[in-house]
TrEMBL record:
Pfam family, one: 2-Hacid_dh
Keyword terms, alphabetized: NAD, Oxidoreductase
UniProt keyword Aminoacyl-tRNA synthetase, yes or no: no
Protein name: Phosphoglycerate dehydrogenase
InterPro entries documented for this protein: ACT-like_dom_sf, D-iso_2-hydroxyacid_DH_PdxB, D-isomer_2_OHA_DH_cat_dom, D-isomer_DH_CS, D-isomer_DH_CS1, D-isomer_DH_NAD-bd, NAD(P)-bd_dom_sf
Natural source organism: Rhodotorula paludigena
């Protein structure tokens, strides 16, 4: 077991905390569009906050009882999260940039932060976790969590949250725009006009109404796309490894080969897995309809790009849109050359091809949704102990506490035989209203609500559980 044991003592909170954080607006409105977005958000009011009931508050063991939870937000986290966290009474400190390991350790230690919010550039290493015992929770305000040592965090009793699906709608809308743009050869015409070339053609340009969209991977994005495509008069078929109930009139097709031969547009929405690597290569392209279109907004390795180039140059494919690549530049700039991917210039020379720099999920709305989702997860964990949506913890939640005099025990512990026997022997004399525990690998997490306890009893429970052999982290909230 690495990392110090974490305990957080109890305090009777007299200050009720806000339970319905308001979704904040996007950054300053520079366009009427973003202004109307903000107005919509204001009109819809608060983000639905699933955890109702009595507001619970954790306090530091040796700190001032009314000292607010301290949260450090790095990398310019969206205002939706900042406002939501501040509305809880937390002390929120913001920095625009990422911090290197040693700077991060110094900053977190100096500020006694319980929570840190990052995006993709800040690395939370095992060293950071070991050196900052005050840390309880990490919020990754992005899709991935590769930048965090998840195992080290779990073993130190630190829950990690992210936002894997907040940008699904943004991706689905981009695909819709690509379907129309490809079938009208829009990008080629727009490029020609910029070069001063008037090329008024209708040959090879089609309406999308009545055409068949084939979706590979009917998950969060694929299913949203299905609904939008049907609204434009398209027929939708989909292929997925699991049977999924269709939305609208979409139809699931059992074999990929059958599927490929039926679709006018094939759009890929599968995760990157060994079995999806080069899932669409020369053999699959040959099975597609002549003059079909191929769209990849999933992951770069799902398509064999040299096979796509052959398909476009031979005329087998009438067009393609690619947002993701096997290797992508680390920074913006003129970095998408042959040094990165050997076929880059050949790809760029293909007709009716839309290339975009992995922007499928990059919208103001997605950033705002990510802020609200991860912000809510931090609040639920800090205030109520809920780990719903955690990536490195078992997901445990309890119904809200309604009445005074009930305390919630949040106990992260080693997943070892006999732990529950110890916990129950400590709680046995009390009225345990509800209790739930689950495990994930080496780590287990227990929530228990204990009714009719006074402050002295709460402290006794806390000390007994926090001092038990398998304890990793213990908090008591009320
Ligand atoms: N371009 C972008 O900016 C962007 C943004 C967000 C997500 N993405 C990517 O989009 C993809 C889909 O995301 P999602 O949120 O819809 O994921 P999801 O997990 O909700 O859905 C994926 C679907 O693919 C299916 N699937 C898995 N393996 C399959 C296989 N071999 N054949 C057929 N179906 C298979 C799954 O059963 C699931 O239904 C992911 O690769 C994700 O990384 C890209």
């Amino acid at each position: 077991m690495s990392g110090p044991q974490r305990r957080q003592s109890v305090s009777l909170s007299t200050q009720p905390l806000a339970v319905s954080p308001v979704l904040a607006t996007s950054p300053p409105a520079f366009s009427s569009f973003s202004a109307s977005y903000e107005a919509r958000q204001r009109a819809t009011g608060a983000v639905p906050f699933p955890q109702q009931g009595k507001a619970l508050a954790p306090f530091k063991e040796d700190g001032d009882r009314d000292e607010p939870v301290r949260i450090l937000l790095l990398e310019n986290i969206n205002v939706s999260a900042v406002d939501m966290l501040k509305a809880q009474g937390y002390h929120v400190e913001e920095q625009k940039k990422a911090l290197a390991e040693d700077e991060l350790i110094a900053k977190l230690k100096e500020g006694g932060f319980s929570a840190v919010g990052i995006r993709s550039k800040t690395k939370i290493t095992a060293k950071v976790i070991q050196e900052v015992p005050s840390l309880l929770v990490i919020g990754c305000f992005c899709i991935g969590t590769n930048q965090v040592d998840l195992l080290a965090a779990a073993r130190a009793g630190i829950a990690v949250f992210n936002s894997p699906f907040s940008n699904s709608r943004s991706v689905a809308e981009l695909v819709i725009s690509e379907i129309v743009a490809l079938s009208r050869q829009l990008c080629d015409r727009a490029r020609e006009m910029r070069e001063g070339i008037w090329n008024k053609v209708s040959k090879g340009c089609w309406e999308v109404r009545g055409k068949t969209l084939g979706i590979v991977g009917y998950g969060h994005i694929g299913s949203q796309l299905s609904v939008l495509a049907e609204a434009m008069g398209m027929s939708v078929i989909y292929y997925d490894v699991i049977p999924i109930m269709p939305l609208g009139s979409a139809k699931q097709v059992e074999s990929l080969d059958d599927f490929l031969g039926q679709a006018d547009f094939v759009s890929l929405h599968v995760p990157e897995l060994p079995e999806t690597t080069n899932m669409i290569r020369a053999e699959q392209i040959s099975k597609m309809k002549d003059g079909a279109y191929l769209i990849n907004n999933a992951r770069g390795k799902v398509i064999d790009i040299p096979a796509l180039i052959d398909g476009l140059k031979s005329g087998k494919l009438a067009g393609a849109a690619v947002d993701v690549f096997p290797s992508e530049p680390a920074a913006n700039g003129p970095n998408f050359g042959d040094a990165l991917n050997a076929w880059s210039s050949e790809l760029r020379s293909c007709p009716n091809l839309i290339l975009t720099p992995h922007i499928g999920g990059s919208t103001e709305e997605a950033q705002s949704m990510i802020g609200a989702e991860v912000g809510s997860a931090l609040i639920r964990y800090l205030n109520y102990g809920s780990t719903l949506g955690a990536v490195n913890f078992p997901e445990v939640n309890l119904r809200p506490i309604i009445h005074d005099g009930t305390v919630r025990l949040c106990h992260v512990h080693l997943n070892q035989p006999g732990v529950l026997k110890v916990v129950n022997s400590i709680l046995g004399e009390h009225n345990v209203e509800k209790q739930f525990s689950d495990s994930k690998g080496d780590i287990a997490y227990l929530l228990a609500d204990i009714a009719n306890v006074d402050e002295k009893e709460i402290k006794e429970i806390y000390e007994a559980i926090g001092g038990s052999r398998a304890n990793i982290a213990t908090r008591m909230l009320f």
